[in-house]
Amino acid sequence: MGWKEAAEPVLTRMPSVVRPEGHVPFRRKLGWTAGILVLYFFLTNVTLFGLGTETGDFYGQFRSILAGSQGSILQLGIGPIVTASIVLQLLGGADLLGLDTNDPRDQILYQGLQKVLVLVMICLTGIPMVFASNFLPASQQLANTLPGGTFGVQSLIFAQIAMGAILILFMDEIVSKWGVGSGIGLFIIAGVSQQLVAGLFAWQGLGNVSGFFPTWFGILTGSVEMPSLLTAEGIQALFMGPGQLLALVTTVLIFAVVVYAESVRVEIPLSHARVKGARGRFPVKLIYASVLPMILVRALQANIQFLGRILASQLENMPAWLGTYGQNGNPTGGLFYYFAPIQSPGDWMWWTAQTTAEAWQVLIRVGIDLTFMVIGGAIFAVFWVETTGMGPEATARQIQNSGMQIPGFRRNPQVIEKVMERYIPQVTVIGGALVGVLAVAANMLGTIGAVSGTGLLLTVSITYKLYEEIAEEQLMEMHPMMRQMFGGGGN
Amino acid sequence: MSSGQNSGGLMSSAGLVRYFDAEDRNAIRVDPKTVVAFGILFGVGIQLLNIVAL
């Protein structure tokens, strides 16, 4: 008896959102998506009950990738889902699960396993976060009046963030089944876009940071002090200081590069076996595995950093080679410093005053970050393609089933697979590694609104995908016949 | 046809969590409206607690 039979009673009973019966009109889909988005924004603004004075964001600079917001019910964001996905990808990619996702029985088990793993990850990240670090301190005032004392308040806080994380999981399921795109993508876009708009337009009165346009208005009218442009300080202030020109250039560049990379593809011509003249193309995109594996690699780095933070708060005197931490909880030396990815220009520009690290330390850190992202990006892209059924064998079967064939070749899944094998594995690895390089470069140059470069990269790519999906959706809306050709859309 | 739309699809932008068509008879099914209603109530409830207690 394998683990499948043993776990079956639990896995098959995991609650799931009902699938819509029949076709959901496009307007209703948009309605659900917008509704979930509003609910998400509302929940990020609900402060945890029983929270004391906070000391900083536990997720730190990883926040833009992991969504949610510090101190709110959605403190955990999509963190547990991403971490659970890492585990599943690694297990599935190495074929340790023994689940065949074409078999309905195994599909149910896979779905259940995802949810159980997310629940486990909620506990694994939530419990240390609440009980073993001081990023979510319990309110002393409340602890004095509540029977449970500090532990009671902490348990309350954990219950709230766990509930919030479960809500995120179900909200993702609603968007996936009833809306457009996926909830995960939606939440990442939401957070990053909010920060980006704030970084462009926020004025001094709103908070303590001034956005790009108000600052430039100030510079041009003379209300913002700038050193003379003829000096080195002046040039630096223009590009990296209040002028933010470097950030603006990077932001625009990321948009351009991602949209360009999304359109680079190898197209394999297809023709219909029976309908003469019906032609199609199977695109093998440069970013074949999409940018989602990038979230997984970044989240892996994030989890290493969380481990460091928890260790630092638990160990009385952590050895210096392991990690030393500064005032705001950022690593300043030791192993955890070198494993921390570069998040902003200030992290690596050793000639400025923003970092105290030596040039060689910075270089080692950049080197480790780059290696991690390139190799990790390639590995996770390969696993992603394997587990989501985008590999040569699975696509060959799909093409065969849709009645198409590659002109000039015999109509046979093995033959199609041979042709696919010439492109898919290579493109996957190159694409994965390329996205890794892009993510590191984007982070190093910094963006408007201090959105991490990776966050912006993900946002642009997910939005592009969403746009494609909406276009396809509208096409099907206009021509119901197309629904059959695209093989679904709910029927 | 049943597996066509969920096995990755030709042009699918699958999310991190994958959902299939297959459903077990035993599974607990939740209506999306229930989830949204619960989310709103939960959020408002915590807000109220914050206002009352502080």
TrEMBL record, chain A:
Q: What's the protein's topology in the membrane?
A: Multi-pass membrane protein
NCBIfam families linked: 3a0501s007, PRK08568.1-5
Q: Which GO terms describe its biological process?
A: intracellular protein transmembrane transport; protein targeting
Q: What's in the GO CC field?
A: endomembrane system; plasma membrane
This chain is encoded by the gene named: secY
Q: How does it assemble?
A: Component of the Sec protein translocase complex. Heterotrimer consisting of alpha (SecY), beta (SecG) and gamma (SecE) subunits. The heterotrimers can form oligomers, although 1 heterotrimer is thought to be able to translocate proteins. Interacts with the ribosome. May interact with SecDF, and other proteins may be involved.
Recorded family membership: Belongs to the SecY/SEC61-alpha family.
Q: Does the keyword section mention Hydrolase?
A: no
Q: List, for all copies, the residue spans of the domain called Translocon Sec61/SecY plug.
A: 38-71
Q: What task does this protein carry out?
A: The central subunit of the protein translocation channel SecYEG. Consists of two halves formed by TMs 1-5 and 6-10. These two domains form a lateral gate at the front which open onto the bilayer between TMs 2 and 7, and are clamped together by SecE at the back. The channel is closed by both a pore ring composed of hydrophobic SecY resides and a short helix (helix 2A) on the extracellular side of the membrane which forms a plug. The plug probably moves laterally to allow the channel to open. The ring and the pore may move independently.
Protein localization: Cell membrane; Endomembrane system; Membrane
Instruction: Read off the HAMAP family from this record.
Output: SecY
- The entry's keywords: Cell membrane, Membrane, Protein transport, Translocation, Transmembrane, Transmembrane helix, Transport
Q: Which InterPro entries match?
A: SecY (IPR026593), SecY/SEC61-alpha (IPR002208), SecY_CS (IPR030659), SecY_dom_sf (IPR023201), Translocon_Sec61/SecY_plug_dom (IPR019561)
Instruction: Give a single Pfam family match.
Output: SecY
Per the record, the major location class is: membrane
Where are its TM segments located?
30-52, 112-131, 151-171, 183-203, 235-261, 282-300, 362-385, 423-442
| Name the UniProt record assigns to this protein | Protein translocase subunit SecY
UniProtKB/TrEMBL annotation, chain B:
Tell whether Transmembrane helix is among the UniProt keywords: yes
Q: Where are the transmembrane segments?
A: 35-53
Q: Where in the cell is it found?
A: Cell membrane
Instruction: Show the Pfam families listed in the entry.
Output: Sec61_beta
**Any one of the GO CC terms:** plasma membrane
Q: How does it sit in the membrane?
A: Single-pass membrane protein
Q: What family is reported?
A: Belongs to the SEC61-beta family.
The task this protein performs is described as:
Involved in protein export. The function of the beta subunit is unknown, but it may be involved in stabilization of the trimeric complex.
Q: How does it assemble?
A: Component of the protein translocase complex. Heterotrimer consisting of alpha (SecY), beta (SecG) and gamma (SecE) subunits. Can form oligomers of the heterotrimer.
Q: Know the name of this protein?
A: Preprotein translocase subunit SecG
